Amino acid sequence: MIVKVKEPLESEYSLIRSGQIVFTYFHFASYKPLLEAMVKSKAICIAYETVEDSLGRLPLLIPMSEVAGRMSIQEGAKYLEKPLGGKGILLGGVPGVEPAKVVILGGGVVGTEAAKIASGMGSKVYILDVNLNRLKHLSEILPKNVIPLFSNQYNINRLIKDADIVIGGVLIPGGKAPKLITREMLKEMQDGVVLVDVAVDQGGCIETCRPTTHEAPTFVIDGVVHYCVANMPGAVPYTSTVALNNATFGYVKKIADKGWELACKEDKGLCRGLNVVKGKIVYEAVANAFNRPYKAIC
Amino acid sequence: MIVKVKEPLESEYSLIRSGQIVFTYFHFASYKPLLEAMVKSKAICIAYETVEDSLGRLPLLIPMSEVAGRMSIQEGAKYLEKPLGGKGILLGGVPGVEPAKVVILGGGVVGTEAAKIASGMGSKVYILDVNLNRLKHLSEILPKNVIPLFSNQYNINRLIKDADIVIGGVLIPGGKAPKLITREMLKEMQDGVVLVDVAVDQGGCIETCRPTTHEAPTFVIDGVVHYCVANMPGAVPYTSTVALNNATFGYVKKIADKGWELACKEDKGLCRGLNVVKGKIVYEAVANAFNRPYKAIC
Amino acid sequence: MIVKVKEPLESEYSLIRSGQIVFTYFHFASYKPLLEAMVKSKAICIAYETVEDSLGRLPLLIPMSEVAGRMSIQEGAKYLEKPLGGKGILLGGVPGVEPAKVVILGGGVVGTEAAKIASGMGSKVYILDVNLNRLKHLSEILPKNVIPLFSNQYNINRLIKDADIVIGGVLIPGGKAPKLITREMLKEMQDGVVLVDVAVDQGGCIETCRPTTHEAPTFVIDGVVHYCVANMPGAVPYTSTVALNNATFGYVKKIADKGWELACKEDKGLCRGLNVVKGKIVYEAVANAFNRPYKAIC
Amino acid sequence: MIVKVKEPLESEYSLIRSGQIVFTYFHFASYKPLLEAMVKSKAICIAYETVEDSLGRLPLLIPMSEVAGRMSIQEGAKYLEKPLGGKGILLGGVPGVEPAKVVILGGGVVGTEAAKIASGMGSKVYILDVNLNRLKHLSEILPKNVIPLFSNQYNINRLIKDADIVIGGVLIPGGKAPKLITREMLKEMQDGVVLVDVAVDQGGCIETCRPTTHEAPTFVIDGVVHYCVANMPGAVPYTSTVALNNATFGYVKKIADKGWELACKEDKGLCRGLNVVKGKIVYEAVANAFNRPYKAIC
Amino acid sequence: MIVKVKEPLESEYSLIRSGQIVFTYFHFASYKPLLEAMVKSKAICIAYETVEDSLGRLPLLIPMSEVAGRMSIQEGAKYLEKPLGGKGILLGGVPGVEPAKVVILGGGVVGTEAAKIASGMGSKVYILDVNLNRLKHLSEILPKNVIPLFSNQYNINRLIKDADIVIGGVLIPGGKAPKLITREMLKEMQDGVVLVDVAVDQGGCIETCRPTTHEAPTFVIDGVVHYCVANMPGAVPYTSTVALNNATFGYVKKIADKGWELACKEDKGLCRGLNVVKGKIVYEAVANAFNRPYKAIC
Amino acid sequence: MIVKVKEPLESEYSLIRSGQIVFTYFHFASYKPLLEAMVKSKAICIAYETVEDSLGRLPLLIPMSEVAGRMSIQEGAKYLEKPLGGKGILLGGVPGVEPAKVVILGGGVVGTEAAKIASGMGSKVYILDVNLNRLKHLSEILPKNVIPLFSNQYNINRLIKDADIVIGGVLIPGGKAPKLITREMLKEMQDGVVLVDVAVDQGGCIETCRPTTHEAPTFVIDGVVHYCVANMPGAVPYTSTVALNNATFGYVKKIADKGWELACKEDKGLCRGLNVVKGKIVYEAVANAFNRPYKAIC
Lengths: 298, 298, 298, 298, 298, 298
Hints:
Family (chains A, B, C, D, E, F): Belongs to the AlaDH/PNT family.
Enzyme class (chains A, B, C, D, E, F): oxidoreductase
Radius of gyration of chain A: 21 Å
Pfam family, one (chains A, B, C, D, E, F): AlaDh_PNT_C
Helix content of chain A: 25-40%
GO molecular function (chains A, B, C, D, E, F): alanine dehydrogenase activity
Largest interface: A-B, 44 and 44 residues
CATH class of the largest domain in chain A: Alpha Beta
Low-confidence stretches of chain A: 1-5
Oligomer: homohexamer
Number of helices of chain A: 10
Strand content of chain A: 15-25%
Organism (chains A, B, C, D, E, F): Elysia marginata
């Protein structure tokens, strides 16, 4: 889950001055004017999205993935309502009536949090992943109405035939997620199914998804409702902000206590967050994205 | 939860002929033209909403209350989103961030089903009722994030001060539910709180509620979002229809096998469903509602 | 679940003398020589199988139904093994592999206990009943991998198509259970499915079942494995005996303390257990079964 | 759990040609003719049983251990039935009657999966291990009727005195498991207890166990029923095959995409699977087992 | 659980005047001076302890039994500490060490609430009752570390041999509870076991118990610690008072709204609470206790 | 949790002779006479409290932290009783009455075990930690009435305002824990709140705590009850001893089998336990504490 609420306004970032430390989401690779402004400003730009923890995970993206994963089911349940284009099924059913079937692609942060909410609401949940150790872990911590299944084309094809909600939660960090649901496969699904692609802003794992907004969150192809809001956590700013602050606080404190140079020296993962420093691009992928010179710093 | 999808159209009910058995929701008291047409038709009108089981419960209303109770949380969660007027809080929070607080007024069918979904989504749930035996039962079957509490003005006032969602699920069968949340009390609530009044079509237990539709489900008073759709189950017709059929099937079979007269003779609760028979009003409350003569039949 | 370990031997019951109180399972209707011997003996015969509690339930049959219901899944799981004729599926699957699907017909004592074990072993469980109140109760006390569903021909037909185990737990007390699974329907099932009919000794609810023994418990029709042992609890005599004694103890004490006449006078349900008293048949259904005179006693 | 369905037939492996890649279970050390045939064939033999993951675990044995662990309780429950030699106890008891007591030796894959099923069936479960961190983990993910206990002679002796089922799930990878249950200790157990030794094909941890088959799975010593089938997963081939394929698929894909040499170069754990390559023995333990020359390859 | 904080002081009750309604715990049978003063006062005395609900239960005693039942385990755990005379065992153990064993006599309100806390703290719990329906219900709502067992001398004798805590929660309403634990049986128990007799103020079900106070709550006989505080809820007055008010509020409102005469006329159970009315003793058992004339009023 | 039952008596340790291996808790830094005696004795002193496992954790302190963490709630619940100075609240409430609120500072071993017991007893639990990965793990293994929250001054201040029990479970290994609850903050708390500082013997995280004993475990400041027993596990010696033996056994066996020198050579973590060897101080912190020469040995 990449978090990018909106294109930042020039009026906002033009105020940044040389030597200032800016610690936030940048996503330089996707918006060149911002990169150029930051290079020009000679500020110290530490990007949330590239900070790493000691295991190489992205600790400042995880909270947003948690929020989006949990929200994805809330959205799926809502858009399953008939007046909104869905099949007209209540997620958890009622005693005597079968509940909805939710298929979650990916057993990472997004998928796991989605599975918690989907099972809590009483649906039948399938969560698919290729990592068997992860599947076993999920089988041990999730409720019994969640079935962890090996992810392969056979299982996906089989399960979507009578799925009510499909959650796309597959993300290859720094890479393109595979298109697990193709345009062709929509035809196998029933009318009114809801797809939620949580990774839509990175291309997503559902071929027919393209980013939408909270104002116009869904569109329909082949009778299948697509919910592909690019910045899902933006709808719950109270929760998202606190979650993000919990994660950034330790880094902010380190930078404030020690200065950015010492802080980055002592914490290699924080150093990985440096993207632009005093006019130089110091994160290789950003430099490469625009064929600009790269200067190693960590 | 009274279920009345829409005013029935004359074009629909004008086709009914003498001696036909019509077994459906009528709600005669709230729509005089329908009553008059049925009296004129000389049909046998058995109203879902007045059929009783052997304990005096209303078995053909319960499935709709179950659907509405479960849906109420789905709606509350959705309208808690900032772009829809809510506080911008995610119902279940995420690890490290406190979840939302849901206050459910009434521990009957609606409230219990609401509590199941609210707890399943990870919120902190309070369910209030004046029946201690019921509270003990709820404490034994609901998850541990549900606190069953005695319902009194003190507890309600105290809890709504920092509630995020309030569900009105109080219904006095055949009577007017008390106004547990008054206009005045809205001022004590925070901006962006969501109220869902499931019993709105019977007056409801929230003073400021008035019926809305799935097309325009909410309105705001004093910063508080009101969701008061009169026919909530109508949004999930697949689930609602199957749920209702499960409940009506046994009665339909009896009527078909034995004829309505014998069926009603053998099952006093079904007999209570008779409202209009061959031109006579046979349900006292309906007769009284329009000062019409009443003929006892059960 | 009728419990009848074997035809009683004449050598056993020929020792009974006039005035003796015999409190045990008799099942007179199904074995005339025993009835005649008891009539001749002039003993007091109180039959476990017809004693009733204050709600008209059969408290001395319930423990055996509990044992048989729990055992039914143990048998289903075992005979699902390939070398025993089954599909070669492990009931609970393993992480990454889908578990088996268990369909339980009837949500009474047998079905509920079966559902507890089947869900505990990790399978996907459907339990079907026509009583919606019962289904709601089951949804509140059983684990989340059990789906309580309304029982009708549509649901049964749909579910057995890919079921792995089908449990017959339907019993109409004092009547013939309907044949919910007919010979014809076996063709819709997959090879290696296991049927367990717990009520087989009363005709059962699976048309193709006929009683078998622990020595040769199964037979195969149309590729479907039938487990139809008539006295399932007999395989776990330790548990069954203690369970039965728990239930009979109170009655035995009453009879011992007060004599059978006073005990039966004070406890109408115990009185219903009287079948043959001093040479007279005092239980109507037994008398009728053999066109013998009946003398009312309770 | 070593998986070896049967001695491979010469007619099967004589068809293998030079340069072919054979990726399967070999267990060369236990069957010399196969080793010699493979050496002679000049094929590339990658043995499932020696492939390692990045933590040194054996990912192609784990799925079989999961299957066997879960099955072990199914077998224990079945053979506890009286007609099969057991105590005649129902694993989960019924309300009012104490359930059976299951003692599981080893808290690894086999023991953990056994504990899940045993607790799900309602028995009282003790799981013993010497690793306290593992015991804490088990206490956090297993149901409350499982008691994780430190494994020592005192506890084992104490627990088996009134155990109903004992599961042997101790395996020292690449070594001989200790004999935790000796011949002598059988005398302390009650008649009709069921022992299941899941690691029997590696010597097992129960002294009196010797491998049996699905055709004749049990034998009795000192009144104690021994279930020691060498290839337990073979009875549920559908589940076992899918589970195994889930685990091997990634390796097969790597080998197919890159050729075995590059695949083994990039994945050291896969390289550990190489046993015989073009006529040379490249796995040290296999070479040593027959005093043959060993050629290092990883 | 009879609640009687202390002997009421004359200075307190001497202020009561003719015609006043006094609605509180009286327990007249156990304190004659109070009875005489009330008779003399000509007040209307409605005793909490004899009010009944429509099923004949005592709704104003239940809340106190709930409090005492839950507290009983808290006390048991505390007095199991070595410095307080106990065995020096931690109730829930820790991973690797076996938890304590708690035996609860009686599956009514007290026993059920005790079982909830004891299981929540991680101990092994046995709850004994003679009512099999109740045991089944308990098995369905309590955690899996609670074993519901039939109550008989054999089971009690067997279980207390290695019990750590024994809770006496047996109460025969209006009668003397049987002495399930006799003086003799203490010898079979281990040193440092803790007995908690919740019904001590009615004689209790443990022969050696005699009422103690919160100031000196325990005494030791044969090495067994006895906790027998007569008014357990008095130690948690906040919880007890709110719990009691929840239960009495409806009655108080009825009396206030309608006057005691009409209220008692309409609610037969409340009428059962009348003990002394305008100088007459109107509750038979109280009159009998002191050989005073009784005047029927309900 | 440092475990130090009492100052060791000279009469005890004066018996130790040269070359003897003493493997126990020493805590040399806090008791100089013991250090000097051991130096003089020329014994081999291996201190439980400094042995490390392969991840740098302290495996011989963990069992004591587990015991103390679980006990902390037992103590909190008891001292919350009115006669002992508490608020007079029952930890779990009863149906209809709100349960107590427990705030646990620190999500490590102590805090996690405390949360298990507090939630098991039915209270509302907040557990605070700065490690988000740990909070997520806790949210996945603890019951739903536990809310894992990010630990910061804002949350602590907010939560203690209406907390009933506060558990101090923060420990900086080898360092001073921060004073999360200051003297000033007590004024914000309600009268009768109970504080339990489990790390009191290392200074603790509650400013006003000073070590107490099992004989006089509590004192009151500003109306707040402080429970600060320095050696909590000492009250449950049976459990503590077995827990400790489980942890030490493997080390004892290694030392016995191989001698201390080889054992310490092969296990670097055990080597870290060496404090005094043949008259030399070989643990740096101990040497530094008394400005004595230090000799490296591992």
